[in-house]
Each structure stands twice: as structure tokens, then as C-alpha cells.
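[recover] target loaded
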């Protein structure tokens, strides 16, 4: 939710979210790229977005947040001319990123990692193009990463799932005005110019 809010134009309100280490790492990450954050877990957050193409360069500590490590690169990879480094704790440094790096590379992303598969992950913003990617394993995290990249890619991006996975990202992007459709086993997203802010109520965690 915080990443989508950071992508938006203007202010997004996020309520009922779980205050935990991973969510705090995510909030710190979107703040590092330029988003404004006000509020608290009790009263809700107000996140001032930087827009789809407005993230500033940063070195980002993802802590132990594997979801953040896999989702954020999809958004950053398509912002031409900027650079980011994503790193985390000892556990994160043992978690491979090749499951996102390989399809992002097919889209034109410029990424590098330790031993070609482990954090730290270096991202140099580049022009992306849409692809059809058949996921070898169902993963909502990898799918979400590619959908974020598809917002910035030229043309259509089609992610084909071997089995359905959670669709929270699709729902949030549609609510923000993105063109996202289900076509059989595929989720299809079109390039976008902007996402609209709004209210995000987080169910459970």
C-alpha cells in the first residue's frame, strides 16, 4: 500500500495497517525516495506521493522485508537516469533476487547483484518495454513487481500465472486508475502516466 501511495500524485490515506518491522522498513523506503509521510498507526497515515516517475536516488535498507525487496525494484527500474541500492540484514542477504531480476532484465532493466543473484541489488533506471512473461512458479510478489514495471514500460505487459496468486496489487492499481485486466491465466497491464491518490484500508495485516 505504501509503495502504491508513493507512486501516486498527491496524498493517499492508509488506515488499519499493521505496525511491524516490515511495514516500518517500507515506510522508510518510500520516504528515502522522496515521499512525505504524516500520521501514526492509530490515526492512519497520509502519504504524499512523488508520482510514477519521481522517485529520487537513494540507498535503501529493506531490513528483513522480503516483500519490499521484491516489489520496489519493479517501480524503480523504469525511472531513467536515477540509481538505487537495496540492501538489508544478514537474512535478506541470503535471499535470491534472480526471480525478479531475470524478467525485469527482459524488459530492459539495468540491474546487478552479488554473485548475480543476491543482495545488495543495484538498480540503474532504464527505458522498459512490455513483455509476456510466463511465471515458472506462482508468486504474488514477483507478479506485483512486474506489474509495477509494466506501469512504466512501453506497450503492454502480460504476466501469465501457472496458478492464481493473491490479487491485492491488481485491486489497488485498478482503484488508482491503472488499466489492469485478467485474461485467462494472464494479468495484463498497460503503461500509465499517473496514479490517482485515495483511501487504502488494509484488511488484517
Amino acid at each position: 500500500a505504501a509503495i502504491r501511495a508513493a507512486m501516486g500524485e498527491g496524498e493517499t490515506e492508509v488506515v488499519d495497517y499493521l505496525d511491524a518491522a516490515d511495514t516500518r522498513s517500507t515506510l522508510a523506503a518510500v520516504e528515502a525516495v522522496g515521499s512525505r509521510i504524516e500520521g501514526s498507526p492509530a490515526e492512519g497515515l497520509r502519504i504524499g506521493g512523488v508520482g510514477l516517475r519521481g522517485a529520487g536516488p537513494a540507498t535503501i535498507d529493506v531490513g528483513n522485508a522480503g516483500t519490499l525487496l521484491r516489489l520496489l525494484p519493479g517501480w524503480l527500474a523504469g525511472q531513467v537516469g536515477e540509481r538505487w541500492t537495496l540492501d538489508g540484514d544478514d537474512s535478506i542477504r541470503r535471499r535470491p533476487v534472480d526471480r525478479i531480476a531475470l524478467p525485469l532484465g527482459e524488459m530492459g532493466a539495468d540491474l546487478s547483484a552479488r554473485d548475480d543473484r543476491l543482495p545488495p541489488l543495484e538498480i540503474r533506471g532504464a527505458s522498459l518495454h512490455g513483455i509476456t512473461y510466463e511465471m515458472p512458479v506462482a508468486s504474488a510478489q514477483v507478479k506485483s513487481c512486474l506489474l509495477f514495471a509494466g506501469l512504466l514500460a512501453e506497450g503492454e505487459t502480460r504476466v501469465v500465472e501457472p496458478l492464481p496468486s493473491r490479487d491485492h496489487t491488481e485491486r489497488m492499481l485498478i482503484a488508482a486508475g491503472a488499466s489492469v485486466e485478467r485474461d485467462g491465466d494472464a494479468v495484463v497491464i498497460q503503461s500509465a502516466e499517473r496514479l490517482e491518490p485515495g483511501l487504502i484500508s488494509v484488511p488484517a495485516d
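[recover] notes: The longest strand covers residues 118-124.
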